[in-house]
Write a structure and sequence with these properties.
Layout (H helix, E strand, L loop, with lengths): L2 H5 L4 H14 L2 H8 L3 H15 L4 E2 L6 E2 L1 H29 L2 E5 L5 H13 L4 E5 L2 H9 L5 E6 L6 E9 L25 E3 L6 H14 L6 E3 L3 H9 L4 E5 H7 L2 E4 L6 E8 L2 H8 L3 H8 L4
Parallel strand pairs: 3-4, 3-5, 7-8, 7-9
Antiparallel strand pairs: 1-2, 5-11, 6-9, 6-10, 6-11
């Protein structure tokens, strides 16, 4: 399509940029160099602009690029248009670089989050992370403190599912750990406990464990929710207690992990976001990296 037809539709800025550069430089050759375009391109753009306006911008009867009276009249507006276009480019670049804050579980490791951020950066998405408890993450999205959050949901409703089991210092004898084996015997020794970390203090995990606790005859105190992951792990390191966790967490902590014999237990995660495009990126292009952060097997 000839350039003269494009000026009025999409290349008004390009034409004005050439016009302003040539007027300031005093020649088509120097002005084209200022605008970082070949001289023939600058000439064509200005000619197309003149045809679009229906009047000459330059007096071509002299060797220098002298403005016509019409050119002098429209030059200030053309200069403002170019300046606005430059400001728009600047603002758009910074908007693309504005970090996307994501609320994540505090179970996510630094390396995995760094790899997620690196993969997002290759897509020109700049991520920042805020670790928060399950109940906080969706609220942070609602209050616009973050743009997206990995929210805790039942495993069957989630985008990602993380199987849970029990881990301890000593390797269990079997392929699974049955909660009923924690029942107190006749001896006076301390009763072993199962510790839930704050990430699993949600109804679809906690309540299922408590129902099994009651069904197999454990004492109420034998299943507890720790104040933090650190305190839960400390309790396990200092005793024969067990930590409810993912296999990936157990490996990071140097614990021996087995599935729970009485129930199939898993964390589920979905995405909440203020903008649908942000949620789509996490669910699709970045799904594998998010899965690694959450501890999804495989």
């Amino acid at each position: 399509m000839p350039e003269v037809h494009r000026v009025g539709r999409v290349d008004l800025v390009g034409g004005c940029r050439a016009f302003v550069s040539v007027s300031e430089a005093g020649s088509f050759t120097a002005g084209a160099a200022v605008a970082h375009i070949p001289q023939p391109v600058a000439s064509r753009r200005i000619a197309a602009l003149e045809q679009h306006f229906g009047a000459r911008l330059f007096d071509r009867s002299t060797r220098r690029a002298r403005l016509t009276p019409f050119g002098r009249d429209v030059l200030p507006s053309a200069r403002r248009l170019v300046q606005l276009a430059d400001a728009l480019e600047h603002d758009a670049k910074h908007a693309r670089q504005r970090p996307m804050r994501v609320a994540v579980p505090d179970t996510c490791g630094v390396r995995d989050l760094a790899e997620l951020a690196a993969e997002a950066g290759a897509l020109e998405v700049h991520l920042e992370f805020r670790a928060a408890a399950p109940g906080e993450r969706a609220e942070l999205v609602r209050t616009n403190e973050v743009r997206a959050a990995l929210t805790a949901v039942p495993a069957e409703e989630g985008v990602w599912s993380v199987p849970l089991g029990l881990a301890g210092i000593a390797a269990p004898p079997g392929r699974v750990v049955h909660l009923e084996t924690l029942r107190a015997g006749r001896g006076a020794g301390p009763r072993r406990r199962v510790w839930l970390q704050p990430e699993d203090d949600v109804p679809h995990v906690r309540d299922r464990v408590l129902r099994v606790r009651d069904a197999v005859g454990l004492r109420p105190a034998q299943v507890g929710v720790a104040e933090s992951l650190t305190s839960a792990v400390a309790a396990v390191f200092g005793s024969s207690d067990l930590l409810l966790c993912s296999a990936a967490q157990a490996a990071d902590l140097g614990l021996h992990w087995r599935p729970v014999g009485e129930l199939d237990l898993a964390r589920g995660y979905a995405v909440a976001a203020t903008v649908g495009e942000d949620a789509d990126r996490l669910r699709t292009a970045l799904s594998a990296a998010v899965a690694r952060c959450l501890g999804v097997e495989g």
